Amino acid sequence: KWVIPGAVQYHGGLALIWHDVIVEWILDTLTQSTRPQRLLAAVHKKATRGNPRSVVKAIDEFCNQNEWAMNVGNEKGSEILDSVVSETNPGCVLELGTYCGYSTVRIASLLPPHAQLITLEFNPDNAAVARQVIAWAGVAEKVRLVEGESGEWIPKMKEQFGVKTFDLVFLDHWKNRYLLDTKLMEECGLLKKGSVLLADNVVCPGAPDYLEYIRNSPQYKSQFFKSHLEYTKAEDGLEKSVFLG
Ligand SMILES: C[S@@+](CC[C@H](N)C(=O)[O-])C[C@H]1O[C@@H](n2cnc3c(N)ncnc32)[C@H](O)[C@@H]1O
């Protein structure tokens, strides 16, 4: 367990440099393993196979007690993501940025029967861990994990997977892609009146070009939900934007 100075807990930029660069590098070097591999080991040790909420809990415990990881986390997850999924009751969901499958499991466990979640991840090592986390949680039949870049796969969604439109899109990949991929989804006809975009980390690390667009476009009704960067006390939040057609 690491003793973390207050400045790191409350300052998003410092928190990211500390947890996501320095500590990760030190632990990877000392253990000759990767953070996703260590997170997967915690799931296998602590979570009950076939119980998605126990998988979410095991990952949150690992991140609170052992090491930080870039999952949406329990605070934003339970207070915002879960509520938006439940309210929207989506039949077809797109997640941009799977990482280890934490939010994938959260979302999938709340979907109505026959709903489908497509999740995109371009890092093959992360995707390999996510597949195992998703399988352990018992939600694999609802999830299609696609390995590749969002910019390459969004235009293929209709043709390759028979998607008509998405009811809900969770944007949680690299922040400089939020705006580009939103415009791409519009161009590809993947949004319909009432489609909900939910974007994580719009404060930390931040996606200013996306916020400027989504808050000022007459095609969206947008709302900010204040929260904290996962597993810290630094400011962050999610933006929920409804496409008006
Ligand atoms: C913040 S993590 C996702 C966390 C995950 N949604 C969760 O809450 O558990 C971002 C992930 O997006 C992936 N990624 C970044 N840009 C991407 C892109 N353009 N296409 C596909 N995956 C991308 C990264 O490799 C990383 O694993």
TrEMBL record:
A GO MF annotation of the entry reads: catechol O-methyltransferase activity
Q: Which Pfam families match?
A: Methyltransf_3
Q: Which reaction does it catalyse?
A: a catechol + S-adenosyl-L-methionine = a guaiacol + S-adenosyl-L-homocysteine + H(+)
Q: Give the GO biological process terms.
A: catecholamine catabolic process; developmental process; dopamine metabolic process; methylation
- What EC number(s) would the UniProt record show? 2.1.1.6
| Record key words, sorted | Catecholamine metabolism, Methyltransferase, Neurotransmitter degradation, S-adenosyl-L-methionine, Signal, Transferase
Q: Which family does it belong to?
A: Belongs to the class I-like SAM-binding methyltransferase superfamily. Cation-dependent O-methyltransferase family.
| PANTHER family per the UniProt record, alphabetical | CATECHOL O-METHYLTRANSFERASE 1-RELATED (PTHR43836), CATECHOL O-METHYLTRANSFERASE B (PTHR43836:SF10)
What protein does this entry describe?
catechol O-methyltransferase
Organism phylogeny: Eukaryota, Metazoa, Chordata, Craniata, Vertebrata
